[in-house]
Write a structure and sequence with these properties.
This protein has about 80 residues and is mostly helical. It has one domain. It is about 75% helix and about 0% strand. Helix 1 packs antiparallel against helix 2, helix 2 packs antiparallel against helix 3 and helix 3 crosses helix 4.
């Protein structure tokens, strides 16, 4: 595993919510979002993108409001139960 993927996996492990599944607090949401952005960065770098472009793309997709909406969509089915 390369250094970028290892860092992303460490961030994901550290960001695991106390519930073990769904983030409950704003801090948990931010931690998971940062970890997912880092995972996106690693994915783009491993696909051959230059680091600067990979970082920008990961932030645009997984960071900010867009990333938060994508994460929340992943839990929609759980909200309906």
């Amino acid at each position: 595993m390369d250094k970028h993927s290892r860092r992303a996996m460490e961030m994901l492990a550290a960001a695991r919510p106390k519930s073990g599944y769904r983030p409950e607090t704003e801090e948990e949401w931010r931690n998971v979002q940062r970890a997912l952005e880092e995972l996106g960065f690693a994915m783009f770098v491993n696909a051959g993108a230059p680091e600067e472009k990979a970082r920008k793309a990961a932030h645009e997709i997984y960071g900010g409001l867009a990333g938060r909406v994508l994460m929340q969509i992943g839990y929609w089915d759980d909200d309906k139960k």
